[in-house]
Amino acid sequence: MKKIITLSICLLVIGVFNTYSQSIFGKWKTIDDETGNEKSIVEIYQKDGKAYAKIIQLLEKGKEDKVCDKCKGANKNKPIKGMVIINGLSKDGDEWNDAKILDPKTGKEYKCYITLDTPNKLKVRGYIGFALIGRTQYWHRLAE
């Protein structure tokens, strides 16, 4: 009986830690913070110890093949689908920061940081200068 109780407690503890130790990596549905509409599916992946995010699907009807006409440089007039919008986040405790995020709607780049709000909800903060001056979106993990 003692073994069953000990095993049950161990499994419970492992389950709790596993739930809260989920990573930022995977596919996320983005929600427009101004309209509340679903915008895209973004994949966050790791390369050389840094995190990157690219748009893999646009969800707005009629905009599936949209290009970034307001972007500058190499992204100018490139398809938004497939575009890397977060470049090189570094892990800093529970937060990933020290990178830029591109807003394809405006073509502007902002400093950003991301954190897991819950295991299936990602807080994405873009800002100018200080993190107090900016805007936050919440992305929702796609079940795979």
From TrEMBL:
InterPro entries: DUF2147. Signal peptide: none annotated. Residues 26-141 form the DUF2147 domain. This is DUF2147 domain-containing protein. It comes from Lutibacter aestuarii.
